[in-house]
Design a protein that fits this description.
Layout (H helix, E strand, L loop, with lengths): L3 E6 L17 H6 L4 E6 L1 H4 L9 E5 L4 E5 L8 H11 L8 E4 L11 E4 L5 E6 L2 H9 L5 E3 L6 H22 L4 H18 L1 H11 L7 H17 L4 H12 L8 H15 L6 H14 L2 H4 L18
Parallel strand pairs: 1-2, 1-5, 3-6, 5-8
Antiparallel strand pairs: 3-4, 6-7
Helix pairs in contact: 3-4, 5-6, 5-8, 6-7, 6-8, 6-9, 7-8, 9-10, 10-11
Length: 315
Amino acid sequence: MKKINIAISSCLAGNQVRYDGGHKRSKYCLDVMSDWFEYLPICPEMGVGMPTPRPPIRLVNQGDKITVKMVDDPSVDFTQELSGYAKAILPKIRDVSGYIVIRNSPSCGMERVKVYHENGNPSNISSSGIYTGELMRLRPELPIEEEGRLQDPKLRENFINRVFAYNEWQNSVLKSPSIKVLIDFHSRYKYLIMAHSYKAYKELGQLVANDGSKSLPKVIADYEMLLMTSLKKVASSKNHTNTLYHIFGYLKKDLSTEAKQEVINVIEQYRKGIVTLIVPITLLNHYMKQFGSDYINNQAYLNPHPIELGLRNYL
Ligand code: SF4
């Protein structure tokens, strides 16, 4: 399988680009995920010409806006440079399917970065880093996650889910845009979307069945935004249970009474938190191989990412 291009904060990739001359090498990204991900390291601070080592910077609340300034000399302001770098980097990251950033950085943090008052005291507000905040504004559909949050199994699965879905979106619909390719994509992702948001599942279905009032580029742009926003929502076990029963519906006429009961028991065990999601998925996949149609066997929900990553093993 071709590796997926992922942008990453350069210090997470092990490069010595931090203000103190060090790095923050991520074992998870580099040792576990590198079989699937090809990394593009980016350091916005180095990108705007800052040296390493360098004086530290921090976010400052100026009332009407958040800026980023040098700690020791607040007259030195990097806000324009760092937000401008987010615009400048866009062509370079056009074909990446995700971005992993480091937390707490006034440049790269995605959320909850500490903000200070102009007098140097910590304020009670937080923000995204200037560079990543601007990038999220410019590319709202791009899966972005903080490396620290990838320690949480649900957030990790959610991010990797989005990366694989977005990669397929880029390589199918964005590469060869047509209503047929869009319908094929939607058919394959229906149940995955349902697990994240039943409302989005309905709305995306309506978008695909365009009544002709929207142009194809508009349908694709609207679909992309709604798809990626809905996948960002962590799927609840209630939604997964609902989706599992929908998929089970495709097997009902072919399974013996005992086999049906076995599937129901396992889905119920998942619903009650006794077994992890991979258990009913594995059982459904087992019966799908024998009795399932191409349509249902092709559902992204059944195999959204490589099984070797063990991502559906949480309660
Ligand atoms: S700007 Fe970003 S990539 Fe560069 S050292 Fe700071 S956190 Fe790491």
